[in-house]
Design a protein that fits this description.
Layout: H1 4-21, E1 29-33, E2 39-41, H2 42-56, E3 61-66, E4 73-74, E5 80-88, E6 99-106, E7 117-125, E8 129-135, E9 138-144, E10 150-154, E11 165-168, H3 177-189, E12 191-192, H4 198-208, E13 210-214, H5 227-240, E14 244-246, E15 266-269, H6 271-281
Helix pairs in contact: 1-2, 3-6
The structure holds 2,5-anhydro-1,6-di-O-phosphono-D-mannitol (AHM) and magnesium ion (MG).
Residues 38, 67, 85, 88-91, 169, 196-198, 214, 224 line the site of 2,5-anhydro-1,6-di-O-phosphono-D-mannitol.
């Protein structure tokens, strides 16, 4: 049997230049909403269809699920399930800022706990296209060339010990008191870097050390980001890079999923900063 996980990662890498290339003409809104009730961009729908077609064609893939579609697609006999956010941060298309593609590979039927992942990856469409892959507790960063070739830039990527940056989502008046308490401590210590796309914002934390949060909100205690498609893969990557994740009370990877499109507050970064968040919340 071939290496299905490697095949999945290769498909994401080889599709990245095409996804990026197709953004130009797809900055308009689509007429649809995704299952989370958000207006889709034409690029969201297109990237979703492209990845669905290619990933379900892999023999070892049994299930495909995406932030942009309601149910789980049955892809045949394969053992692995893939959960995708085809274009994370697509609201940044209008202002031409960074965005990404996120994917978790689960050795279980979806929805599944984060610990069921065997690998996770994200592509960052920044000034250059990079891809970060976590597998077997090791994180590697690649540059993806225009022809889809992967060139390794950092092997065994780990979070710097000394944290430097932070980025928190949501409107400040909508933050809960306990999150505002934590944020005011962090603001006094670290430097704000926030771009409004989780992939870009977490990639800065992975590069410089620090903390990212899309927190619980007064108006929405469950936060914004989705457990299966966004939180679990990013938590898996940060964990493999020596960092930590939390939903406020426990590791994201240990959270039991209640549904495919379930949202969760998400905090990621250096272990000490995540521990501090949990003790502020306790
Ligand atoms: P998306 O997957 O529909 O693009 O939504 C997720 C994005 C994240 O990238 C980002 O952290 C968050 O939404 C920002 O939300 P907001 O624009 O509400 O601050
Ligand atoms: Mg997203």
């Amino acid at each position: 049997m071939g290496d299905t996980v490697a095949e999945i990662i290769d498909v994401v890498a080889s599709s990245a230049p095409e996804i990026r290339g197709g953004l130009t003409g797809r900055r308009r809104k689509a007429d649809e909403q995704n299952p989370s009730g958000e207006t889709q961009m034409a690029a969201d729908v297109w990237a979703d269809e492209l990845l669905e077609e290619r990933l379900t064609a892999i023999d070892g893939v049994g299930q495909f699920a995406s932030e942009e579609r309601e149910g789980v697609i049955d892809a045949g006999e394969g053992n692995y399930a893939v959960a995708v956010d085809p274009l994370d941060g697509s609201s940044n298309l209008k202002s031409n800022n960074s965005m990404g593609t996120v994917l978790g590979i689960y050795d279980a039927e979806l929805p599944a706990k984060g610990t069921e992942q065997v690998a996770a990856t994200y592509v960052l469409y920044g000034p250059i296209t990079t891809m970060v892959v976590a597998r077997d507790d090791e994180v590697t960063e690649f540059v993806i060339e225009n022809d889809g070739t992967q060139r390794t830039v950092t092997e065994d990527l780990t979070l710097p010990d000394e944290p430097v940056v932070y980025g928190f989502g949501g409107r400040v008046p909508d933050w809960t008191d306990r999150f505002a308490d934590y944020a005011s401590e962090i603001e006094a210590e670290l430097k704000l870097r926030y771009g409004g796309a989780m992939i870009g914002d977490v990639n800065q934390v992975l590069t410089y050390g620090g903390v990212f949060g899309y927190p619980e909100l007064e108006s929405r205690p469950e936060g914004k980001l989705r457990l299966q498609f966004e939180a679990n893969p990013m938590a898996y990557i940060l964990d493999a890079a020596g960092g930590a994740s939390s939903n406020g009370t426990q590791s994201i990877l240990e959270a039991e999923p209640a549904g495919l499109h379930e949202r969760t507050p998400l905090y990621l970064g250096n272990e000490a900063l995540i521990e501090r968040l949990e003790s502020t919340f306790a």
